[in-house]
Amino acid sequence: VQLQASGGGLVQAGGSLRLSCATSGRTLNTYGMGWFRQAPGKEREFVSAISWNSITYYANSVKGRFTISRDIAKNTLYLQMNSLKPEDTAMYYCLKYRGASIFTPLDYSTRGRGTQVTVSS
Description:
Strand content: over 45%
């Protein structure tokens, strides 16, 4: 099942956005989940991840500004992004890991439509 991200948009530097990723079934409390981003001409970049037991991980570039969370009842993964910077501009998408831990391989078959985040200076 492809995961659809939403919530992106155009925001000024210093602003905030909250991204959502709709999942299904017991995905969120069974598998690790991650947020990634890719800017034009750049490689995919890890942003944040959460394991099945709620351990969170962040890239150094977003630590202290972004917060990953999940609502198991709503089958939704979130990424709260505060203090946005122009360098955060990218297409953001969510992926499921193949196991409960984020140290298992990513399941690229779950990559769906991303959501564009554009931060103006």
